[in-house]
Amino acid sequence: MPKLSDTIIRLSALREASMAAQLFASVDRLSDLVDFGANPGALRARYYVPDTLREDAALVVVLHGCTQTAAGYDTGSGWSQMADRHGFALLFPEQTRANNPNLCFNWFQPDDIRRGAGEALSIRQMVAAMMRAHPIDPARVFVTGLSAGGAMTSVMLATYPDLFAGGAIIAGLPYGSAATMPQAFDRMRGHGGPDEAALATLVRNASDHQGPWPIISIWHGSGDTTVNPANADAIVAQWRPLHGLDRTPPRRETIDGYPRRVWCDASGRPCIEVYSITGMAHGTPLATQGDEACGTAGPHMLEANISSTRHIAAFWGLADAVTGEQTAEPAVVSSVLARLASGWPAWEGASAVQGRPMPVAPPTRGVGAIIEDALRAAGLMR
Description:
This protein is α/β, with parallel strands linked by helices. The chain has helices at about 5-25, 70-75, 80-85, 120-135, 150-160, 180-190, 195-205, 230-240, 310-315, 335-340, 365-375, and strands at about 30, 45-50, 55-65, 90-95, 135-145, 165-170, 215-220, 250-255, 260-265, 270-275, 285, 300-305. The protein has a single domain (about 25-350), classed as Rossmann fold, CATH 3.40.50.
């Protein structure tokens, strides 16, 4: 028979998940961008411009993951919070169910991942419309995304490297690694795909651009069973030769308990960085507590005690450098909601990052009240 404490934890997590889902559905800081072009990819366009928008502002293109919306991903990642603080603009392309029933960007469809065609061209047209409407610095346009949005980030960096100064790929895949749905699933599992030499060639052949190339930030959870972490290494292999770093060893360090590798050019400028979020499942890593809090935990938006949004903005030069705590031990994902969102049963007391028990804070409210709230959230009690 399950322990009462295990039942309380499970019901509390259910209640928190329901509250998070309601929050993600209700919060929308974005506006619609209309008449931005021919839109051959039939995407929706949304944007955010803070009151503090600077002259010659940067523009960040943000691509959500499967089953997500633009507004939901903004709520989770906290990008509009960062825009408020630092005065840059945001563009959120959004997939439609008519294109993909699961709201995934079609990162493996040949007609959507070529320069001048499909979804890639729609996003390019959105960027052009934002640059016409707002004082955007054309030398400071960036793109980031999660999962299918991360893979589509790879597409945009490869097909329009002349447009983007940098990109950040979270739990994504390299450009051109799949051209059919079966291939896409194989690559997500870490099976097959082009070799290292072919990966770089795919980017070179995607446009007539000769450089300089966008700088790349890569983030992946080591416990990701949706998109195998081997894809992070494949992305590195795709971009290192383009930056002339194929024989350059990385600098290794630990930031907030997580390993980071950095490849720098001859001048010492970081060109490629990779964060491996130890034990984290499929999603965007967040830090939602403390003075540096940014974003909201929820499905595939995972509390990890490190904000990918803040670190990415700093890597691109859009925010002050984040001085991460230097520790020898990976940080623990301690949020019950994060465990539930990542697919870990919240009531498994012994299941944890690095095989350690996941700490659970004692309930601050009465047991009966917690159970009643959870049952109401689940629709099992009025």
